Amino acid sequence: MGLATGLMGGGMLVPLGAIYADEVLGAGKSGLGVLITALGLGVAAGVGLVSWLQRRLDKARAFTWSLIGAGIFLALAVSSISVIGILMAGWASSSKYSLLGALRAAGQLVAYELPLVLAVVGVVIQAGTLNVQGIVMAQATGEIFGWGGIGNPFIFTQFLGFAIFLVAVQAELTQPPFDMPVAESELVTGYLTEYSGLRFLLFFIGEFATAGIFAALAATLFLGGWYVPGIDPTSDLFNVIGPAVLLGKVILVSFLIFWFRFTYPRFREDQLQQLAWKVLIPLSLANIVVTGVLKVVF
Q1: Cys-Cys crosslink for 135: which of 57, 102, 127, 145, Cβ 3.0 to 4.6 Å?
Q2: pLDDT tens digits for 114-171?
Q3: Considering its fold, how many domains does the chain have in total?
Q4: Which domain holds residue 117?
């Protein structure tokens, strides 16, 4: 009904209102204060990152966080806050299924945070800066075997890092095939088991907001960001086409994220940890070494 009426305007508020009106169960013996803190941290990790996409009010043509020297790692650091919210949510439920799901999520997020950051290190080495704008400009002014017609999007030279980044993002979002923390056949819905109504919705708002931000990070780091070949970045035309190009790249990466979600079966817990510690981390370290050597030589 929401989709049908949404085509005529405003109808999507109907199913959202139904979720808001659902019965809200108690928070368990651990207390309502812990639950509220968990909700705040879980949503803040995703929604708080949206400010990274907000353009400045002046005509500086810059993103808010992109002006910070270590802007890219600041964004990754804020995204890691979600693990605290998940742990507190599982504990506040006073349910063994929720607590076990939260512990699984914490172990998974810690394991895959390392390859996520290490995949970005290769980009930082090649660009020579931690600044997001500097990374985009490095791709815009680069050359592919002496040809600079489209710049040098780092997906060509950092394809391994791009693949590692996407796999780590999938695990960070606890989406299939990395959805062990919410395995329905084992833990009902994991740390979300005792939540309903608006509380359940808030966790999903944070999850999907984080997915969109990770897609924006991947598009910026590996696909050239908002750069458009052949158009002066100081022109008014760029102000229209640049954001549209970035949005198109974000949609492409989002498609890949959700394509993985609906394609591959769930890993076992031991397979999930082995993939992080025995495959992704060694590969990302090798990528850093090779990138550093080539940066010095060439």
Answers
A1: 127
A2: 999 999 999 999 998 888 888 888 898 887 766 767 788 899 999 999 999 999 999 8
A3: 1
A4: 30-297
